[in-house]
């Protein structure tokens, strides 16, 4: 899981499901991801390996739903994918949040380049606006849900399944597990599999790439 998402989940998660409390602790995120794993094991949600994504998006008719935050998508994305971030920047300037931001910066932000985030409390509604509205109001759209490393997309899959979506697939392991060519039309400054990496670790990655240690 990307560290920014972990930091957000460990503080406060604002539910995107109507009727539920606005604030959840990390246990809720664990419940969502655990529930999604059960859906995958049961076959209710299809697990798609990155190397099989082209077939799912082509012959099987799935649409790619990218739930990464904007900064990751800006580094590299699949052209034509639908973008609805599960986590968004937290602009609250209250004293408790400011303290959390400082801790996040020292332990996570400087190394990964990720900002302090909170759950997008309109995630389900935003997905509906992006994919359901254009499908006659139906939740039958076939969605391949993806993130950087696979955990945030598991949470998203569970939330969407709970909201009535039944043609869901999950990109197993996320974009970090893909290889060059798994997705035909990638745009951005980075390789798709490295887009989650930022901050000081991004500089370190560039050195490794320059030395040929990684490709």
UniProtKB/TrEMBL annotation:
<feature type="domain" description="Rhodanese">
    <location>
        <begin position="58"/>
        <end position="187"/>
    </location>
</feature>
<keyword id="KW-1133">Transmembrane helix</keyword>
<dbReference type="Pfam" id="PF00581">
    <property type="entry name" value="Rhodanese"/>
</dbReference>
<feature type="transmembrane region" description="Helical">
    <location>
        <begin position="194"/>
        <end position="214"/>
    </location>
</feature>
<dbReference type="InterPro" id="IPR001763">
    <property type="entry name" value="Rhodanese-like_dom"/>
</dbReference>
<keyword id="KW-0472">Membrane</keyword>
<dbReference type="InterPro" id="IPR044614">
    <property type="entry name" value="STR10"/>
</dbReference>
<protein>
    <recommendedName>
        <fullName>Rhodanese domain-containing protein</fullName>
    </recommendedName>
</protein>
<keyword id="KW-0812">Transmembrane</keyword>
<dbReference type="GO" id="GO:0009507">
    <property type="term" value="C:chloroplast"/>
</dbReference>
<dbReference type="InterPro" id="IPR036873">
    <property type="entry name" value="Rhodanese-like_dom_sf"/>
</dbReference>
């Amino acid at each position: 899981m990307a560290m920014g998402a972990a930091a957000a989940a460990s503080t406060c998660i604002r539910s995107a499901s109507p009727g539920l409390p606005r604030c959840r602790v990390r246990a809720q995120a664990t419940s969502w991801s655990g529930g999604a794993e059960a859906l995958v094991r049961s076959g209710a949600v299809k697990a798609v390996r990155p190397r099989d994504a082209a077939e799912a998006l082509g012959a099987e008719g799935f649409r790619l739903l990218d739930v990464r935050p904007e900064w990751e998508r800006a580094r590299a994305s699949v052209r034509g994918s639908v973008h609805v971030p599960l986590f968004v920047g937290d602009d609250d300037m209250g004293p408790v949040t400011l303290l959390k931001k400082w801790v996040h910066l020292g332990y996570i932000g400087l190394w990964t380049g990720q900002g302090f985030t909170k759950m997008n409390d309109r995630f389900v509604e935003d997905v509906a606006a992006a994919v359901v509205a254009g499908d006659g109001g139906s939740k039958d759209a076939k969605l391949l849900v993806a993130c950087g490393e696979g955990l945030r997309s598991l949470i998203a899959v569970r939330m969407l399944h709970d909201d009535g979506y039944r043609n869901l697939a999950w990109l197993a392991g996320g974009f970090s597990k893909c290889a060059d060519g798994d997705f035909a039309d990638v745009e951005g400054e980075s390789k798709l599999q490295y887009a989650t990496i930022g901050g000081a670790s991004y500089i370190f990655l560039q050195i490794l790439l320059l030395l040929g240690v990684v490709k």
